[in-house]
Amino acid sequence: MTAVMEQQVVRTEPRSRFSEVWRVVRLHAVTPSVFFGIPWIIIGFAWLVSMVVGIIAIGAGADPAEMREGMRYSWAVLSPQWYLVVVGVQSIGMTLSFALGFGATRRDFWLGTSLMFGIVSVLNAVAIATLVQIEKLTSGWWIGISMFDALWYGQNGWLVDFYTTLALQLLVLFIGASITTVYLRWRMRGMLVLVFSTAALVLAAVAIATFTESWAAIFGWLMSIGIVGGFTLILGIAAFFAIVGYFVIRRATPR
Question: What is the DSSP letter of 67?
């Protein structure tokens, strides 16, 4: 009887793959400020600055129509994108060892992190695309000041604004995450190889395009595929980084 009682209890019930992946999503969601709080604080601050600058300009006698047209070239709507690269880095570098300690596999961790990136990108894309439409309906928050209705936003409808934001957010998140997997796998040596090889490829591509006088053809092709085609290309690059990160992290060693 004593021997039986001293035997360890082993869980034998099957656990679905999705439940393991969803556990990683819940692990990331423990700190929602990283994914939602800080990015929207950045957007809110950029919106506040845009409003203050616009009000000052109107008070100084600026033409509202010209001012709003000038604001279309503002990059304030993209202000949280740079921080999302850091979010991608933190999602891997600061969470992988903790997840492995709770029994998650590297594969499930990457799939769960990718799912979290997808959820964050979809929610942010819905919010930004909706804010663009609100800004247009209110003619610039009733005073002719625009921040969200800028660059390519506001010209092709809600769905295109949603799609382009989704693609861009997935790109920056997976860039940060996949670069971190390279560091965890090969440490500083891998990072140096990555930086120098990337610089060499970019310089080689620029040199080839210059010497073959292909810039006009390249820009013409980019113009021909339009906004949706261009961001579909960006979405494809994001998928490339996601696939690379998946294979690299399977041999990565957390700190």
Answer: H
Residue 177 falls inside a structural domain: yes
For 226, left (φ over 0), alpha (ψ -120 to 50), or beta? left
- The count of domains in the chain is 1
Domain range holding 227?
A: 24-249
| Alpha helix segments (H runs only) across the chain | 2-6, 17-28, 32, 38-59, 64-71, 81-93, 96-101, 106-137, 158-211, 215-249
C-alpha dihedral (35, 37, 41, 42), degrees to nearest 10: -10
Give the Cα separation of 170 and 38 in Å (integer).
17
**43-94: pLDDT as tens digits:** 999 999 888 888 888 777 777 777 777 777 888 889 888 899 999 999 998 8
| 161 touches 228 (CB < 8 A) | no
159-182: pLDDT as tens digits: 999 999 999 999 999 999 999 999
Show the tokens assigned to 168.
Answer: 């861009």
The number of C-alpha atoms within 13 Å of 226 and in the hemisphere containing its C-beta is 4
Contact of 35 with 120, CB cutoff 8 Å: yes
Flag whether 17 is in a domain: no
